[in-house]
Amino acid sequence: MQEWNWKRIAKHVGVVLLIFSVLVTTMVGGIILTNIDNVGRLVRVVQLIHSDYLEKVTTDQLVEGATKGIVEELGDPYSTYLNAKENQELFQMLEGKFGGVGIVLSLKDPKKLVVLRPIKNSPASKAGIQPGDVVSKINDAETAGMDQDKAVGLMRGDPGTKVVLALYRESVNKTFTVSLTRENITVPTVDGEALPGHSDIAYISISQFASDTGDELKDTLTNMNITKFKGLILDMRYNHGGELNAAVQVASYFIPEGPVVYIVDKQGNVDTKMSTGTYLGMPLVVLVNEESASAAEIVAGAIKDKGTATLVGVKTFGKGIVQTIFPLDGGTSVKLTTAKYLTPNKVDIHKKGIEPDVKIELEKGQQATISPTDTNFDPQLQKALQTLQGKLK
Fold it and tell me: Can you say how many angstroms the Cα of residue 372 is from the centroid of all Cα atoms in its chain?
């Protein structure tokens, strides 16, 4: 996941308009422009395709390819051109509702499609897919070198349709194939309960920041009757982030009134996101790990700077930049990195991450007990409990 800042614009991005005008010019008049700022080269290539390329190519194809190529040339893995299908899937993901198989991919190794976890009760979960499985093929497409956005797009689709995955499981050194029928996947992003075995300790897990995560948290706190608990453990391990405003809403429950995050654009303009005055003010411990990223780091960074909780786990991922989605025509969009964010103490965590106050790692192959159902806690959760109990003495 990313964190998003939404901006609606009425026209194409200027460069896309330039490409379109170049295409129209070459089709209508066959005019070759002087190579000013390399525009002539683009015009020449387009003209050659129309005049000499063997196969038929439409103007729409050239616009699509040129737009995608320009964004890819930035070399920024967070900036991308989204066609109509990909754009629709992105909005569905941020809404927490989509058609797919229910696999969340890990950020840890960008060169491999590693399963972080299957979503509970999803086709992937029912088929026995496990954390750590590596997706090596999606239908007939090899995944070597495939970026996650493309892989996610291939696995998603209309409910009732099928997708075949080849997966490698290191623990048994075996590759196997599963055929999955896509379903409507609804992802609740907040889970809250009394920590098993500790009725006075509240445990809340936030898996991502979708558009309604703030409302989900509010409802969870109300349904739990949070005031009856002495302390709270907030688990944001493996939370890849999501929507910016949702992060601000969530952080507001865990820090007093004041700045949550500063958004700084390329001109140095600063947009200060303020807490909303819903601070709980109760003893708090926050769990983070190497895959807590972007919006999750906004929340963790604000909490750490304000000193309202102890962070337990390992250093976070380190994504301190913001993407803006610019709608284009035909249901397409371009997603660009447009700003960086700073914590309340003006700390830039991009590519650095946030160090926990109490460092504790899981052993290799050891699974985190997210939303535990018994008292067999992983070492990080156990340390979080001990740390919180120390605050309550």
Answer: 24
Catalytic residues: 294, 305, 319
Question: DSSP per residue over 177-240, as a string?
Answer: EEEEE-EEEE---EEEEEETTEEEEEEEEE--B-TTHHHHHHHHHHHHTGGG-SEEEEE-TT--
CA distances from 134 to 177, 211, 387 (A): 11, 29, 35
- Under CATH, what is the fold of the domain 190-392? 2-enoyl-CoA Hydratase; Chain A, domain 1 (3.90.226)
CATH fold of 98-186: Pdz3 Domain (2.30.42)
What is the spatial distance between Cα 248 and Cα 257, in angstroms, rounded to a whole number?
11
Virtual torsion, Cα 76, 79, 85, 91, nearest 10 deg? 130
Tell whether pTM > 0.70.
yes
Displacement of CA 90 from its chain's centroid (Å): 10
How far, in Å, CA of 17 to CA of 25, rounded? Answer: 12
Q: In the predicted model, what is the mean pLDDT of the chain?
A: 88
Residue 386 pLDDT: 97
pLDDT at 189 over 70: yes
Sheet with 190-195, side-by-side order of all strands: 190-195, 198-206, 231-235, 284-288, 310-313, 358-359
Please write the tens of the pLDDT for every residue from 269-289. Answer: 999 999 999 999 999 999 999
Judge whether 241 and 291 are in contact, CB under 8 Å.
no
Residues 13/329, Cβ–Cβ less than 8 Å: no
Give pLDDT tens digits for 296-307: 999 999 999 999
User: CB within 8 A of 360, min separation 6: which ones?
Assistant: 312, 313, 314, 379, 380, 383
